[in-house]
Amino acid sequence: xxxxxxxxxxxxxxxxxxAFARGVQAAAADAGARQTWCAYHVVGEVLRTGGAAGxxxxxxxxxxxxxxxxxxxxxxxPALPIAQAARVAPAxxxxxxxxxxxxxxASVAAVAAVGWNVWSGGPAPxxxxxxxxxxxxxxxxxxxxxxxxxxxxxxxxxLLAAHRQFAGASVLQTPSGFLHxxxxxxxxx
Amino acid sequence: xxKTPSAAPAPSSGDTDLMLVERTVAGxxxxxxxxxxxxxxxxxxxxxxxxxxxxxxxxxxxxxxxRAYRALSQFRGEAQFYTWLYRIAVNTAKKAxxxxxxxxxxxxxxxxGGDDEEETSGVENELxxxxxxxxxxxxxxxxxxxxxAMEALPDELRQAVTLREIxxxxxxEIAEVMNCPIGTVRSRIFxxxxxxxxxxxxxxxxxxxxxx
Lengths: 189, 212
Description:
heterodimer, A: mainly alpha, 8 helices, 2 strands, B: 9 helices, about 0% strand
């Protein structure tokens, strides 16, 4: 490909990598090459829209802009190419180590609390919920709920007392001592 | 040639813009100059819809490209480069109008038509207030020259450049349509452009140093 053909392919986005770099160098090399680049885009614009947008002569506009660009700091260079940067997770904040340390301390504290709870053998019997401690005295109980009558089977209470350890645990890892969920099927339902 | 105002832009032109932005951010100012040349006329036309003063149009366009250059590292390629530039141009023009306490010739609502290239191009295709009879005539002359040069092209060159510029097909798609290698497609498009731009360049040169 000669220089002009390279500029044409560049205008069409057909160049990659090293060829793209050569295309940019060719198109921006001198006033003639820039005019070719401009003319190709004017031609495309006329073909697509039926008309060309007028404006300041490109070289005059560019000359003035160049003077101002020289006073500007170079555009900031990102660590990664822009296309990649959009896909990469943001970099950790400068104070990231503080959060990591805080998370570590919190984890140790949580483990210590649970360990202490297990080591102490769980809460004293007196701390158990009274409802769960009551079943020995619970004779067949009668609960009125509207028109439906529920007869509590004493064998259920015995079963609960014997298997209290399976009754689940609270958030703080202490046995809850009672069933959380039960289903009651009344004949009328 | 028939007008196709709604024709989609070339499919890979956005990739070229993004790659030119990346090169600029990496320190190649020449790459930015190519972006400026590519979009300068459209930006001036857009600004011309907001301000009366022809000289002010160029000043605001210059400021637009300076602001874009400063913010270039923030451009992520999520939108088309021109869409991003369009917003900067509108904001720059509004600020200039506020600073100068001038009234825009047209309401701002007419500039808020949309974000993508298709919608913004509709705004720009109307005559701008900053255009003089001379610039209108020059633009018409360029358009007529392009169209007549296009008519004079051999069939295979005209078809190749039409499929590329008007239909927006890639080189691969054009090769399939024309049943020829991609290298031939690239060569035909280039030769068509060269033939047309050979007629257009003298018109651009004649306008050197002034608006056209």
